[in-house]
Amino acid sequence: MANWTISKMSGHCGATLTGLSLNEATTAELEGVKDALFAHGVVVLPAQFLTPLAHVALAEFFGQIDINRFFTPVAQYPMIAEVRTAATQNAVIGGTWHTDHSYDPAPAMCSILSAQQLPPYGGDTHFASMTEAYTGLSDGLRAALSGLKAWHSDGSFGDSKVGLKSKAEAFRDPALHPVIICHPVTSAPAIYVNGDFTTHFDGWTIEESAPLLAYLYRFVTQPIFTCRVKWQAGMVAIWDNRLVQHYATADYAGHERLMHRITVQGVQLEGL
After folding, report:
1. Which tens digit of pLDDT belongs to each residue from 67-89?
2. In this structure, is residue 271 part of a structural domain?
3. Distance separating alpha carbons of residues 149 and 270, to the nearest angstrom
4. Contact predicate 128/226, CB 8 Å
């Protein structure tokens, strides 16, 4: 029986899966995608050209779909969000290191991005492994962080100038998560703070928290922990938001770009 061919993208993050079609994948083949996702944090599947129905079915294999409250939905498919960049934009959605939906009490399990319209160059997405970053911490800092929790907020969307909805009813109260989480499936430890949505450590002021958070943001996104996805027509990328952060490169001003994204609901996160 045919199976996925899996190739690592870098030493510590990402894998490319080829050889099968997501539009026709069996449950066993999708289990292979899930296993690769948990092992590598992000998986890239070239030339899939997912139909909207197949995109929804793929997401439902991973869990219940989390309908995004900030993005514009795809016509006739409200479960799919448009991630659209106009030719006039100089900044893009996701153009800083972040983790999707960390501002929710039960943060997103995974996100599934399907390329629809690409610029002639640029628009690569970078990913960084939070499990590998955890292993790179000193023993002392690892011990200090293991007892901390941090607050996450969706408030940064209020100042968004990249086409996101900023309706008052979309915003929620901040959520509290461990700084070092235990992956709900694999039990792998991972660092769980990000520059877009983490505001401060629980019991600390914002001012007190800022220096250590700034250090962590720099540390976890070192090149050695990362991989880079160069998008191609019809490509699909799936990433586990508990295992990686990502960064969308805004280097194609003057050109349009359209991606379809579905985010899958997760569970409340536990610490080590």
Report:
1. 887 888 999 999 999 999 999 99
2. no
3. 10
4. yes
What is the pTM (predicted TM-score) of this model? 0.93
| CA–CA distance, 110 with 12 (Å, rounded to integer) | 19
Total domains in the chain come to 1
**What are the tokens at 132?**
């590998």
- pLDDT tens track for 197-256: 999 999 999 999 999 999 999 999 999 999 999 999 999 999 999 999 999 999 999 999
Q: Which two tokens stand for residue 161?
A: 């100038």
Q: What would the DSSP string read from start to end of 79-103?
A: EEEEEEE-TT-SS-TT-SSB-TTTT
Q: Within a domain: residue 64?
A: yes
**The domain containing residue 155 runs over which residues?**
5-266
148 in a structural domain:
yes
> So which residues are the catalytic ones?
98, 100, 246, 261
- Three-state SS at 202: coil
CATH number at residue 206: 3.60.130.10
